[in-house]
Every structure is written in structure tokens, then in C-alpha cells.
Amino acid sequence: MAVQLEWRSPALALLSVVMVLTSVLPLMAEGCRTGAECSCILHRSTRLSRLMTKQAEDLLTTYIASQGDFSDLFCKLPVNDIPRAEISGRGSLERLRNVHATLGQFQQHIAMVTEEQRNLQAPGSPLLAGLEGAQAQVTNLAASVAALLQILHPNIPTEADGSRPYDPALAAARNVFQQKIYGCAVLSRHRDFLSNVQQELKDLKVKVQECGSRTVRSLRGIDPRRVRRGVVTSGH
């Protein structure tokens, strides 16, 4: 008799999606090496960010439900040293670099939430599975954004960012109550950030069709109509 598995919680549903993504994303990346590579990577990143935004909302719901009494109050308390949800930068390339750097910071914060929750949740907890899946998704999205940046501007590093990095020393001083507050703050901000990333990539997708030289120069802040005989003239 065939056994049918039902995913009865958002966290377990997230784990199933991550398992699929783990096998599918490398194939998608291979396909992006031919044809309009930049457009392909951007399309993949946009789809992944949309999925991650939905799953981040489900993960936050699972987190709140697993924290015991008064858990709904944890998310209302402020926490410092968490990356901002807003994307900064004056142009598309700067904003993409900010997205890439902030994804790396959220990966560190979610990893810390995962480790802290291991001490608070039973083994095999759906929350732990969801947190681990979220880390994998952040890594995949960061890799896609990095690949896009390398096509658009290969000579600029992807790391530089003005956001405050994660400080491991802060974790040692947190008690259980503070850990619960911290986890909710991280996942709430992560959800909001992903929503902004999804919109950012959708907006960029409108500008990019095949990422040809005209598009790349435009995204770098150079008007291709003002390029004459290898000399870039001012737009003012």
C-alpha cells in the first residue's frame, strides 16, 4: 500500500519545498549558462524570493506558536543589532549589493536563532526544520544575487555594505526570555526584508530583458545613448 505524507504545518511544508529546491536549483543554474544568462538568473531569483516571502510568513507563525504562553507579545518588543528590512543604495547595482550583503547577515542571525532554539525545542521539531530550511534558502538566493552582480558589474565586490554585522558576543548574554524575543525579531525582520527583495527584483526585471550591453550600462548609471566613440559624456 502506498503511503501518503501530509504536511500538516507551515514548517514541514517549508522543509518539503527546500528539499525540492535543493535538487532543482543546480539544474536551473546549469540552464542559465546558455542564452540570456542574466535574464535567466534574474527570473530565478525573483521566483525564489517570492517563495521565500511566503515561507517566511509561515515560519514566523510556526515560531510564535512554539514559544509557549504570551508568545504573541515577544514580537512587539524592540531588539537592536538586527539588519534593516529596507534596501539602501542610489542605483540598481548598489541596491543589489546591499541585498547580497544583508542576506549574508540574516543567514548568520537565523543560524543563531536555530542554535538557541535547539535548546528550547524537542528533537525533530517542525520549527527547527523550518529554520534550517530558511538558512538554505537564504544561501541559495544570495548565490543567485551574487551571480547576477558578477554579470552586471564583475569588477565590483559584492560584500561591502553599511549595515551593522552580526555580533556573536551578544548571544552569550541572552537568557531564555531574551532568546525568544530575539528569534521573533529576526524572523519578523527577515520576512519584511524578503518582501522588499521580491519587489526590488520585480522592478529590476522590468528593466532587464536579456541583460545586453545597453542594459548593463544603464544599470551602472551610464546612459548608453551618451556613449560616443568610446567616450562617456555627462548626462547633465
TrEMBL record:
PANTHER family: CILIARY NEUROTROPHIC FACTOR (PTHR15196). GO terms for cellular component: cytoplasm; extracellular space. CNTF is a survival factor for various neuronal cell types. Seems to prevent the degeneration of motor axons after axotomy. GO terms for biological process: cell differentiation; ciliary neurotrophic factor-mediated signaling pathway; immune response; negative regulation of neuron apoptotic process; nervous system development. This is Ciliary neurotrophic factor. The keyword Chloroplast does not apply. It comes from Albula goreensis. It is found in: Cytoplasm; Secreted. Belongs to the CNTF family. InterPro entries: 4_helix_cytokine-like_core, Ciliary_neurotrophic_fac_CNTF, Leukemia_IF/oncostatin. Residues 1-29 form the signal peptide. The lineage of its organism: Eukaryota, Metazoa, Chordata, Craniata, Vertebrata. Its main location: cytoplasm. GO terms for molecular function: ciliary neurotrophic factor receptor binding; cytokine activity; growth factor activity. Keywords: Cytokine, Cytoplasm, Developmental protein, Differentiation, Growth factor, Neurogenesis, Secreted, Signal. It comes from the Eukaryota. The keyword Cytoplasm applies.
